[in-house]
Structures are given as C-alpha cells and as structure tokens.
Amino acid sequence: MISALSSGRILVVDNDPAVLQLISDYFGEHGIKTVSAKGRSAVARQLAGGDPSAIILDLRLGQDNGLDLLREIRKSSDVPIITLTGRSRDDVDCVVGLELGADDYLTKPFDVRELYARFRAVLRRCEKGWSLRTRDVERGEYRFGGWRLDRRSRRLTDPQERPVALSKSEGKSKSSLLKGKNIDE
After folding, report:
1. What's the whole-model pTM score?
2. Which of 68, 82, 88, 185 lies 20 to 30 Å from 94, alpha-carbon distance?
3. CA–CA–CA angle 125, 126, 131 (5° rounding)
4. How many domains does the chain have?
C-alpha cells in the first residue's frame, strides 16, 4: 500500500501555512503527493474528488472544529486519519479523536520524520487488514475492509460501492451475526 500511495494523494488539513509546507515538502521528498485544505469547505471540495489515500488533520482549525470534521469524514469514509493537536498529550482532544475514528495522533510541535513514520505505520496496519473495522450502531451500519452493511435497509455494498444482492434471510443472518460482535472474529 505504501508504494501505491505515490499515485495517490494525502490530504493535509491545517490552517498554518508553515505546517502545510513542511509536510508537503517532506512527503514530496519521499514521492508522496499532498494536497492541502485550510478549513471545512476546502476539505469538502477535496473529498468531492474522491477519498484521498490518507488524511492528516489538525484538530484546531480556527473557526472550524477538527473533531466535528473528523466525525463528518468518518460518516462516509474509512480513510486512514492522523490527527494533530497543539495541546499537551494529556489533553482530551487526543482521546476523543481516537474514539471518533482517528488512527493515530501527534502533538505540536512535532518532528516531521515522526509524522512520516506514524503515517507509514498506519498504512502498514491498513495493508495487513488491521484498518478500521467500524460499527455505527446508531445508524445501523457496519464498515469493514471497504465493505458496508446497512442493517436497517439490508443493503451490502462492496469496496467499489457496488450493491451486492442479499436475500431476506441473508440480510437478517448477516445483521444478527454482526450485531454486538467484533467484526474481525
């Protein structure tokens, strides 16, 4: 997956131009293209073009709330996300970010080499199938390995967002199997 990223793009969301440039330069030296966004509307425009290979998201975006943005991204995507925060490691933002679906985090100031190493580690986990296996109980939706199962509508879609036909009994049995269970089991 890491070598496949040279043809992909990393979305870097931060309102500090120096941070955007630092990440863009360092990742570019390693053959990884980055695109930047400074706020919610710019992120929406970037995501409208398709999911990036990964997102590096600052949780403090001025008027925009990075945690709300993380929550919005997670509603529709399992893209790997590393969050950045300017607060200390014992801050609740890091914990809440991880609970909302971030794959890793760093506090500012950070060493760009450490960010790159964490980025590669997240991608290795994704490549080995350890990526997010999320279950959104409130919406009745399960996501795993790019697949999506909506329990309420009994719809299954593959990683390319193509619908997969389920009989009534398959929809019920898959739903009951996943309900309250660890999807990886």
Report:
1. 0.66
2. 185
3. 95
4. 2
